Amino acid sequence: NFAVGTGSLIVAGILPEIATGLGTSVAMAGQLVTVYGLALAIGAPLLAMAAGRIERRKLMLGGLAVFVLACLIGAFATNFTILVLSRVLAGVGAALFTPNAAALAAQLVEPKRRGRAIALVFAGFSFASVIGVPLGTYVGCEFGWHSAFGLVAALGLLALVTIAKTLPRGVTVPAVALRLWLRLFHQLAPMLAVTITLFSMASQYALFTYIAALLGEMHGIRPTGLSALLVWFGVAGVLGNAFAGRAVDRLGAALVATVGIGVLLAALIIMGNSGSSLPLTILAMGLWGSAAFAISSAQQVRLVNHDPRLAGATLALNTSALYVGQAVGALLGGIAISMLGLQSVVWTGVILLMIAMALSIWESLLSQKNQPQTSGLSALSSGTSRLP
Fold it and tell me: Is-above-0.70 flag for pTM?
């Protein structure tokens, strides 16, 4: 997930360079995030059904192989169309890998440790923020944006070799049958949880997709300064993810997710009012990073809590929602920039996040009403609640 996360997020750091190099606008270049997100969003549930009981090791290796190939195509892309196609292919590869990694982690540990196990898997995205994206941004800005995609391809190849050597053979998870999807779609609470993921991610990517251009306009930040801010964002994300893994097991996923959304909302409001104050922007980036990764981990466990038997379906659907959110956020951010200017992306994010907060509170109240005796992962700790 460190490699996949770096590949997913790298476009935001080098967006101005891509736009200049390919002769397009920043808003149009931002749609590279949209096509990637849509490819992953559509691919995750479809591949979850199609893969059935195929060995997880083969699926994850196959997904990484596709991802590496896509990044190599991006590294040699000569026009915007080829780069768009490479991002679509990268999204398909990530759709094979990421939900399988989360589902496998939940299956390989005892129920009381699932929160920490899933948080550990998604720590890869945190470390991508603290190391991969700042490094890729610096490389892309100093040596050309093509080199950033080459770096991601190298990381993906290293991940592929590592998994081939370490992941046990013969591990499968229950097939996601059509009847399970139908059962899931008829349950309000998990569908609300999935929608929370969609809106929270849309709010962030309305802003994060254009973060390099925005910080350049607000503070005149150069590549080195941008990389430093992204490192700070990632460090906060690692800390937030580590906190969430333990807090979810003790306090419950819904509470951690709702508090995280509140912290993220405060971060965006601070950034929107920071003006030319760099210290306020630094504070906002730290709060944003810590909340973003805490929300992501908590939402995974929140969905597993609803019905462990539907974990394969819910995690795949949540992955789709996550990347639909990225796609929608990048699209809405681009529209906002075209109509109102770069800084309008912050307030676009605030509006979307307020919707996520309302949905999170609604889902929490609904879950408490349906399962008044269940808190945190207690429902997962009984023998009858274990993943099949």
Answer: yes
